[in-house]
Write a structure and sequence with these properties.
By secondary structure, the chain is of the alpha+beta class. Helices cover about 35% and strands about 15% of the residues. It binds zinc ion (ZN).
């Protein structure tokens, strides 16, 4: 056990993170006189004081609407300024002073600022991962933003798992392949890089005239032909005539791809792999001299593709 063990990040494949927030507004109490609009100070109509909504009991409709609109604008202005300051990387004292002044000028409370900070982080994150590649520079910028805003891991959990996955992919693409201890017996000088649960699917002609059409992205195995992250589309399950044959574990080593199933096991030597196709939910492997491709439904086909691509470049 002298090999370095790299932990696989516990992540889900690509899922965009949705963030929702409403401007929840509490009209500040500015006027003591009961029955006065808390925005403009004038008397409220008697009917709205008795029968109106909570908002109507403290402010005129127009006054309330204007206050909400102003607050939204203030949020937006602060969000943009914060985003701009954070995008540069390390923030300076001038940036911090500028933001503090803006907070006071816009009349934002600390609670409101906390909300906007999360939104600004979300903006930066969304911009960085839009192309589904996390560069070292983007990674650093997000870490600095997290530190600057003093956001804790609990708040950022969905973001951190996406980032861990993209970081893992980046390391593989840079040639730092993970090493694992698989459940299969390895050959001499064989190194296992990855394993995951997999379903083995195969083409079965179920109807006359069926032709297996492919919606995935096909990549030829050749030096210098890399799998591009995010290049896949289409789900295997939408293809007709492909049925589940077995389930088990898929192991990727520096020498072969092994399927260790309940009913059957087989392997494809790296040298015999001529092509692979990446789907959203599966990876298809085409072995030299074999008419039928092997389909493996896996949790994260992209990681498998990136690894196969990296191993193909090394061998
Ligand atoms: Zn008013």
């Amino acid at each position: 056990m002298s090999r370095s063990q790299k932990e696989m990040p516990d992540t889900q494949p690509w899922q965009p993170i949705q963030i929702n927030y409403d401007v929840s507004l509490l009209i500040p109490r500015r006027f003591d006189r009961p029955g006065s609009c808390q925005v403009c100070g004038r008397r409220l109509p008697i009917l709205s004081r008795w029968l109106g909504s909570d908002a109507a009991k403290v402010a005129h409709d127009d006054c309330y609407r204007n206050t909400v609109a102003e607050k939204k604008q203030a949020y937006e202005e602060y969000r943009q300024s914060l985003r701009t300051a954070l995008a540069k990387g390390a923030m300076g004292d001038w940036d911090r002073i500028g933001l503090l002044n803006l907070k006071n000028k816009l009349g934002l409370t600390q609670h409101e600022v906390d909300k906007v900070q999360l939104l600004a982080f979300h903006d930066l994150f969304a911009g960085a991962v839009e192309d589904r590649v996390l560069t070292e520079q983007e990674d650093k910028m997000l870490s600095q933003a997290k530190e600057e805003l003093k956001l804790d891991d609990g708040q950022l959990q969905p973001y951190l798992s996406v980032l861990a996955r993209l970081r893992f992919i980046r390391e593989i693409q840079e040639g730092h392949l993970p090493t694992i201890t698989p459940t299969i017996l390895l050959k001499r000088s064989e190194i296992a890089h990855f394993h995951c649960m997999a379903e083995f699917w195969e083409e079965r002609v179920t109807q006359r005239g069926y032709e297996g059409g492919s919606h995935g992205v096909s990549i030829r195995i050749a030096k210098g032909v890399y799998y591009r992250v995010g290049a896949h589309k289409g789900r295997l399950v939408t293809e007709t005539g492909i049925v589940k044959v077995d389930q088990g574990t898929l192991v990727i080593t520096n020498q072969r791809i092994v399927f260790n199933g309940f009913a059957k096991s087989f392997s494809i030597p790296m040298g015999k792999l001529i092509n692979y196709v990446v789907y959203e939910d599966a990876i298809q492997l085409d072995k030299e001299g074999k008419a039928k491709p092997a389909y493996f439904k896996v949790e994260d086909p992209e990681i498998a593709a990136v690894l196969i691509s990296a191993i193909a470049q090394k061998t």
